[in-house]
């Protein structure tokens, strides 16, 4: 099946399998989490509960230095109670264009800025319960500068080669999905297989 | 930095950046979502709110037919209000071993069973707000059988070549993270680069 055929196939499946919203109740609205409990009409006519939450979406950046090294961050992730190695990323502010989010977050978290920016693709990381999407960007040939963190924000910056990052994924130490997917995309570009990487507008 | 060095480096970072739990309050407990609002002590001594939820974890399967084709599913994902193409997956039941979850979910969702099973790795898909982990398995040489869906569960099964799946990722149509990462792992195996794929116990 070609990609165009799959797109049509998925549209038809979405109509055939549709779960129509009957009721929608806000059950928790915090500073970050916006949780809802809906009831939905299933394709067989039955009714079921659907718990989910809204997320504003996020942008993540693959920052590439002029010598090809990659900029990574260490960040403490409270839900997992430990630090992770990740590419820089952050939530999209209300009304903000994803590219602006990406450039803002890269500057705030790492100080790096400038360079040539390419929008790669959008990935969905939690489709069972959340509408979060992460828009991936690549920033090539960036320049160093000063971090601009909030007072209570802690992000440690370091650099690595693509080969190091791939070895950390192979060892099961780098496990964050946006970071793994971005690393594989960079690998494909460097191997001349950019046709296997979704690039917006290409 | 080698993988072992990174592991030690991350342990040190986890201690240095630790956010210690001061209070923890259950704010919503549904059938699926188990949402908490904590307060935590940050590395600089300040206090901050941390909203997050617990997830039991999930297992996902790359089902490989004897001829090398892959088994995929179409499933309606209510939070996104449309159908997605994914590898089969499901939540870990209480006390269930992840391999048992994977084998149960593959049988229930697709009818396929048997074959040779390999645990690949564990990925983290929502570390900003959730402790979900997805354990990836590969099942090679599986046999067809009958789906065993719940009455109100709708999963459509189809098969594709790895090349088709990679082209759908390149076109930005397959966007589910566990499916993208698994596809790239299978590609590496087939290209004789299995050393770039984390395999548990290897």
TrEMBL record, chains A, B:
GO molecular function terms attached to this record: hydrolase activity
Needed co-factor(s): Mg(2+)
Gene3D superfamilies for the chain: Nucleoside Triphosphate Pyrophosphohydrolase
Protein name: GDP-mannose pyrophosphatase
Keyword annotations: Hydrolase
A cellular component term, taken from the record's GO annotations: cytosol
Catalysed reactions, semicolon-separated: GDP-alpha-D-mannose + H2O = alpha-D-mannose 1-phosphate + GMP + 2 H(+)
Cleaved signal peptide residues: none
PROSITE patterns reported in the protein's UniProt record: NUDIX (PS51462), NUDIX_BOX (PS00893)
Keyword match Plastid: no
InterPro entries attached to this UniProt entry: NUDIX_hydrolase-like_dom_sf, NUDIX_hydrolase_CS, NUDIX_hydrolase_dom
Domain annotation Nudix hydrolase: ranges: 53-182
GO BP: nucleoside phosphate metabolic process; ribose phosphate metabolic process
Family to which this protein belongs: Belongs to the Nudix hydrolase family. NudK subfamily.
Pfam families: NUDIX
Lineage of producing organism: Bacteria, Pseudomonadati, Pseudomonadota, Betaproteobacteria, Burkholderiales
């Amino acid at each position: 099946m070609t990609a165009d055929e799959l797109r049509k196939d998925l549209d038809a499946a979405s109509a055939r399998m549709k779960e129509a919203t009957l009721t929608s109740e806000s059950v928790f609205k915090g500073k970050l989490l916006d949780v809802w409990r809906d009831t939905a009409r299933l394709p067989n006519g039955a009714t079921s509960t659907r718990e989910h939450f809204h997320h504003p979406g996020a942008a993540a950046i693959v920052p590439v230095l002029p010598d090809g090294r990659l900029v990574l961050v260490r960040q403490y992730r409270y839900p997992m109670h430990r630090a992770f190695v990740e590419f820089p990323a952050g939530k999209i502010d209300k009304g903000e264009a994803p590219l602006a989010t990406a450039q803002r977050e890269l500057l705030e978290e790492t100080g790096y800025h400038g360079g040539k920016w390419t929008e790669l693709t959008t990935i969905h990381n939690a489709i069972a319960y959340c509408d979060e999407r992460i828009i991936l960007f690549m920033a090539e040939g960036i320049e160093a500068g000063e971090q601009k963190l909030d007072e209570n924000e802690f992000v440690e910056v370091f650099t690595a080669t693509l080969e190091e990052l791939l070895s950390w994924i192979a060892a099961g130490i780098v496990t964050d999905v946006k970071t793994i997917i971005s690393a594989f995309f960079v690998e494909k570009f460097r191997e001349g297989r950019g046709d296997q990487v979704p690039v917006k507008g290409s």
